[in-house]
Amino acid sequence: MEQKATAAGGRGTYIATVLGAALGMAVGFAAIFISTNGVFIPAVLRDFHWGRAQAAQSYAASMLGLALVSPLVGILMDRFGVRRVVLISAIVFASALACMGLQDGHQGWWIALSLVIGMSGAATSVLGYLAILPQWFDRRLGLAIGLAMVGLGVGTIVLPALSQHLIAGFGWRGAYQILAGISLVGAVIAYTLLRERRGHAKASPMRGSGEFATDASISGRLKLFRIVVIFLAAFLASSAALSLGPHLPALLIDRGISAHDAARSASLVGLDSLTELIL
């Protein structure tokens, strides 16, 4: 498919699509809210006199919102197109993120707004931006996804350290609003780079009776078992990494490490993710 770049709109379209997906994920929900959540917790604790568990509820609520709406986001992208859904989602996400700086310490509003952030940020994550790549890539889809995911890795490296500098200079409220602006501008640029190939659908291979028999065989069951094992391993590894994220900077600060160095530790988690993508 990629070899017909000229007929489909030029090689630049393929490059722009990958760059748009990378940029969008670099300033999307996972990079700009999830990876920085732990950096904001110490400042929020001091301001609201909360316990760490109360502040960390924003992380849990946002992930719940993400899980709740992800199937719906997929349906909307199929119906209205990826670019349109991602752009609307990015606007709502940035608005909700900016409103985090308006919080007054009410626990219910804190959780509710975090839930909205997760729900509106779903399409600005991997779910949204990677959905457009199969429209343009076939043989090199894996490479395209890997290159786009580098954007997410870079975002998770840069944004925690940047957030700490913003908190030091403008307070955590101003930092949230500045990050919201960065997210919105990045999403708009990504929108202009992304292109959709409407009506694109991959043909499903015909399956003969022999293939149905194979699915019912021991070989087919072994493949299913391997898939389940891989899924469980990925689930456990992700759970461990995601559970550590919002607490790591606060734990390091408790041990006498400066806030800036604690923020760098969160960036190192992003560096580890980027290294895994490259290797």
From TrEMBL:
Instruction: Note the superkingdom of the native organism.
Output: Bacteria
From the record, what ranges are coiled-coil?
none
Q: Which GO terms describe its molecular function?
A: transmembrane transporter activity
Q: Where does the record place the Major facilitator superfamily (MFS) profile domain?
A: 17-279
Keywords, A to Z, come to: Membrane, Transmembrane, Transmembrane helix
Membrane-traversing stretches = 12-36, 56-77, 84-103, 109-132, 141-162, 174-194, 224-244
* Pfam assignment, any one: MFS_1
Gene3D superfamilies annotated for this entry? MFS general substrate transporter like domains
By what name is this protein known?
Major Facilitator Superfamily protein
